[in-house]
Amino acid sequence: MFGKHLVDRGLLSEADLLSALERQKSMRPSLGRLCFEQGWLTLDQIIEILDEQRDTQQRFGEIAITRGALTQQQLEEALDLQTETHMPLGQVLATLGLLDPETLDRELRQYDQNDSE
Predict the structure, then answer these.
(1) How far is the C-alpha of 61 from the C-alpha of 31, rounded, in Å?
(2) C-alpha to C-alpha distance for 101 and 111, rounded to whole angstroms
(3) What pTM did the predictor assign?
């Protein structure tokens, strides 16, 4: 893992890596947004689902399926899209100011080189 490589090289603390990974996870697009972009849900449907979610603490996808707004297949596709649509760790580290672009570029090249050996 690239983050562990940076920690092992003393360029990043474990706490900084954990913070960056948490930030990366929080930057994922919401299911509602992805479903809207796919044309599966309208804005009104998303608002209704979010209102119900706030009242019941159920997951967004569960509510959407129960209401008949999404199929199980659409939910699975949206969850896959959500997983695929994330900011790379290096970009998060640069955004947080934990690594400068030159160091990031150098370390990515070294990591890729070591990984291919």
Answers:
(1) 8
(2) 15
(3) 0.62
Dihedral sign of CA atoms 83, 49, 71, 35 in order: negative
Q: How far apart are CA 117 and CA 83, in angstroms?
A: 28
The phi, psi pair for 65, rounded to 5°, reads -70, -45
**Exposure string (b/e) for 36-47, b if CB count within 10 Å is 16 or more?**
beeebbeeebbe
Contacts of 44-52 with CB under 8 Å at 24 or more apart are 45/69
- pLDDT tens for 63-88 read 999 999 999 999 999 999 988 887 88
Condensed to tens digits (0 to 9), the pLDDT of residues 88-107 reads: 899 999 999 999 999 999 99
Q: Which amino acid, residue 45?
A: Q
User: Could you give the residue ranges of the DSSP H alpha helices within 12-68?
Assistant: 14-26, 31-37, 43-56, 60-66
**DSSP code at position 12:** S
Report how far apart the first and last C-alpha atoms of the chain are (Å, whole number): 15
**What letter represents residue 44's amino acid?**
D
